[in-house]
Amino acid sequence: MKKEHLYKYFAGSASPDEEKEIIDWAEASPENYKVYLKERKMWNSVLVNIPSPAEDKTWMKKDTRKINFWKLTTVAASIALLFAMFHSLFFTEKQEERWQTIWVPPGQRVQVILDDSTVVWLNSRSTLRYPSSFNSDRREVQLNGEGYFEVAKDEKKPFIVQTSRYNVTVLGTNFNVFAYGDRSFFETALIRGAVQVSSNNHENIPAVVLKPNEKVTEINGKLETGMIDNFDHFRWKEGLICIDGESFGKMMEKFSLYFDVHIKIENPDLLEYSPTGKFRQSDGIDHALKVLQKDLKFNYIRDHELNEIIIK
Question: Is the overall model pTM greater than 0.70, yes or no?
Fold first, then answer.
């Protein structure tokens, strides 16, 4: 197996056929798998300093530049072979203080440990911006995407997650935030502890304080609270896309987001279908659609040049 083919796979840019070829080759013999792990380890040690092509910096602080490697970040990419680690770090520095930026490629997940020992998991196509150390009386980070936070408790320094529309303030807790800048949907779900969600654009939207097992969702410009109905939705940290009775259209919206591909549904009969199941991101969208075809009658066309899937 050529190294450039493996590196293309590690970067997440291999086609479905190329991914299958590499997986089949790696599983064919222990010797092949040793070579695979060796090259994966080599890839993990490479620091790639390029900006996210889809990153929306309009709400972030400007005048930044790249800086050197500062803190280890583990990219936990669940793949069909076993468990592999993939590192993808992007750093920036403000003139007055050092900041780091991590962008997660499509189909990958990232785990990062911040200066205060807070653990953050980032989902596909997410960006986290944070200071190299929390020296002020507030611990602030900026999120564009989906993140799961286990915040180290420090009553003297509140932890604030800033998104494009809302801020989430905590002292010490576990919670999930879904806030992609290019999506209208916003949600924060609290697993334990307490958080306050407040608008950073509209003063007339009252802040919401959540209790454990509650979530808050933006609906028609207002924040509405409810109970968490399925904790499987947070298993994206394991590389799983969990669907529980959502519409086919909603499921395709998730696939479009996590696999970074535009999906058009031309078969209206599919919109009445409410699937339930779990899909592993590392298996790819073609695998997920083929699984769905066992229960539904539909065909699809994939245009790699336009990065589009048309479902008929």
Answer: no
Contact indicator for 123, 176 with CB cutoff of 8 Å: no
CA distance to 37, 167, 302, per residue, from 307 (Å): 30, 33, 8
Among candidate residues 25, 44, 100, the one with its CA nearest the CA of residue 69: 100
Cα 138 from Cα 296, distance rounded (Å): 51
Could you tell me the end-to-end alpha-carbon distance of the chain, in angstroms, rounded to an integer? 36
Judge whether 67 and 93 are in contact, CB under 8 Å: yes
**What are phi and psi for residue 219, nearest 5 degrees?**
-130, 115
Strands 98-103 and 110-113, by their bridges, are: unpaired
| Cα angle value 280/282/288 (rounded, 5°) | 55
SS3 call for 113: strand
- How far is the C-alpha of 2 from the C-alpha of 14, rounded, in Å? 13
Tokens of 109: 């997940």
Residue 103 has pLDDT above 80, yes or no: yes
With CA atoms as reference, report the closest residue to 119 among 104, 130, 108. Answer: 130
At 3 the pLDDT is: 77
Strands 159-162, 139-150: pairing kind:
parallel
Q: Which of 5-9, 72-76, 125-129, 204-208 has the highest mean pLDDT?
A: 125-129
Of 241, 206, 247, the closest CA to residue 225 belongs to 206
Q: Is the Cβ–Cβ distance between 133 and 100 less than 8 Å? A: no
Q: How far apart, in whole angstroms, are the C-alpha atoms of residue 277 and residue 271?
A: 17
